[in-house]
Design brief:
Layout lengths: L9 E3 L2 E5 L2 E2 H8 L3 E5 H15 L3 E6 L6 H9 L3 E4 L2 H9 L7 E3 L6 H10 L3 E4 L2 H14 L3 E8 L21 E2 L4 H11 L3 E7 L10 H21 L5 E3 L18 H19 L5 E4 L3 H4 L3 E13 L3 E6 L8 H5 L5 E4 L8 E7 L8 E9 L7 E5 L19 E6 L2 E6 L4 H5 L9
Parallel strand pairs: 4-20, 5-6, 5-13, 6-7, 7-8, 8-9, 9-10, 9-11, 11-12, 12-13, 15-17
Antiparallel strand pairs: 1-2, 2-3, 4-14, 14-15, 14-19, 16-19, 17-18, 20-21
The structure holds pyridoxal-5'-phosphate.
Pyridoxal-5'-phosphate (PLP) binds next to helix 10.
């Protein structure tokens, strides 16, 4: 049975006791709850697994959209990975963390001129061009700067895959990229190759997220290589990079289908690429991948305190915690399910019953876990841990109901580092401008 908790998690009598050698009750006591806990060994271990699986002839770019704070950017840099950023804010975070610009990929389906300028001025390694208008803007900007900009073109191969409609991106009806089937991809590649200051290295696609099997990736590689072969035939240019994006799934609940291992993912992608290139008599381009969830997801655990337990006889038992959709939007947005566990000291867990873990927001949809098996004696004041919250948790956090966003700590080898300060109520108001004429 898969465990979605980090590799350093220690349980006793069915209760989570420590992460990274640090007592979770002490963490809650020192930093409050809700609290994001990032397990350093799991996070860095996964970065190294991806780096080693794709080896020196491949490139792994961590997808910052999953989770990007200064400390995470620093760890990505220290692991020798590249970094995929998708906005001015993510780019600014990376640069402020001292991340080498040449190892950055800039994404976005509607990059502003300001974002393109920020990227070009910083010397970002690759701008992943997503639309015809952007291509024009970027070419003009590079000309005006007299600066050569490395680019990839994002194309949609017509293959959508992933755990929810909202996170499937590679199909023909997608807001992202240039469609292959409509011929827009090749038209754009021709324009990019003709642009004097754009250095076209290759193609990019991202099929979707939470993908468990390699089939969709293999099919996409075939289509992408065919496009690259047509570019060679038509323009005499051999593109040297193929970026197949991210998307590899993780386990959220023990019964989930386990995704293929990183090693197997790498092996399958490499084999598919080699076979497709042989078929088209094309030199094998550098393989690039952009995992986000598969690196950050399992490293994160969120600690909550149960505030109110409400039994509705014959209907349901609710346990409301001190957070909710403002710190983890995925259950409300995608119907995502998570694994919950009682945490800290308490009675051994002998008997469980179904409990619905609700958030504290004024939304009936603010439910973090429906009918979750929890201790029959779950009580107000108890600590609850939720596993695999490292990706698309803090990154999508909000101040709904003007809740301050939680703190994040990095734990490892018995040590705790605060890497994200908890917002205060004054932080929440810090952008308000009061009227002064009343
Ligand atoms: C362009 C791109 N690359 C990589 C990723 C990361 O995907 P995942 O977190 O599923 O690995 C995303 C996610 O949306 C993406 O849009």
């Amino acid at each position: 049975m898969n465990t979605p908790f980090p590799r350093t998690a220690v349980f006793q009598d069915g209760r989570l006791c420590s992460l990274g050698g640090v007592d979770v009750a002490a963490l809650a006591g020192d930093f409050g709850t809700p609290l994001y806990v990032l397990d350093r060994a799991e996070l860095v271990g996964r970065m190294h697994e991806w780096r080693d699986a794709f080896g020196p002839d491949g490139t792994v770019a961590y997808a910052g959209k999953a989770l990007l704070v200064l400390a995470v950017a620093q760890l990505v840099d220290a692991a020798g990975l590249h970094l995929d950023v998708a906005s001015a804010g993510e780019l600014h975070t990376a640069l402020r963390a001292g991340f080498p610009a040449e190892r950055l990929f800039l994404h976005g389906n509607n990059k502003s001129v300001a974002e393109l300028e920020q990227a070009v001025d910083a010397g970002v390694g690759r701008v992943v061009v997503d639309s015809s208008s952007e291509l024009g803007r970027l070419a003009a900007l590079a000309d005006s700067r007299g600066q050569t900009v490395g680019v990839l073109l994002r194309v949609t191969p017509g293959i959508a895959a992933g755990g929810h409609d909202f996170i499937r991106t590679g199909g023909n009806d997608s807001k992202f990229g240039f469609s292959v089937s409509a011929g827009l991809a090749e038209e754009a590649i021709g324009r990019a190759l003709a642009a004097p200051h754009l250095d076209v290295h290759g193609l990019h696609c991202h099929l979707g997220s939470q993908i468990t099997t390699p089939d969709a990736f293999v099919a996409a590689v075939d289509i992408m290589v065919e496009v690259m072969a047509r570019v060679r035939d038509r323009h005499g240019v051999v593109l040297d990079e193929l970026n197949v994006g991210g998307g590899l799934a993780i386990v959220y609940e023990p019964a989930d289908e386990a995704p293929v291992s990183v090693e197997e993912h790498a092996r399958v992608l490499r084999a598919a690429l080699a076979a497709a290139c042989t078929g088209c008599d094309l030199p094998v381009p550098r393989l690039v991948v952009e995992p986000g969830r598969a690196i950050a997801g399992p490293a994160g655990v969120t600690l909550y305190t149960v505030g109110t337990v409400k039994d509705i006889p014959g209907v349901r038992t609710y346990a409301a915690v001190d957070g909710g959709l403002s710190d983890n939007l995925r259950p409300a947005l995608y119907g995502a399910r998570y694994t919950f566990a009682p945490a800290g000291p308490g009675a051994p867990v002998h008997r469980q019953r179904p409990v619905t873990v609700a958030g504290k927001h004024c939304e009936s949809g603010d439910v973090l876990g429906r009918d979750v098996a929890l201790p029959a004696g779950l009580a107000e004041g108890d600590l609850l841990a939720v596993a695999a919250t490292g990706a698309y948790g803090q990154a999508m956090a909000s101040n709904y109901n003007r809740l301050p966003r939680p703190a994040m700590v990095l734990v490892g080898d018995g040590e705790v580092r605060l890497i994200l300060r908890r917002e205060t109520l004054d932080d929440v108001l810090s952008h308000d401008v009061a009227l002064d004429d009343l």
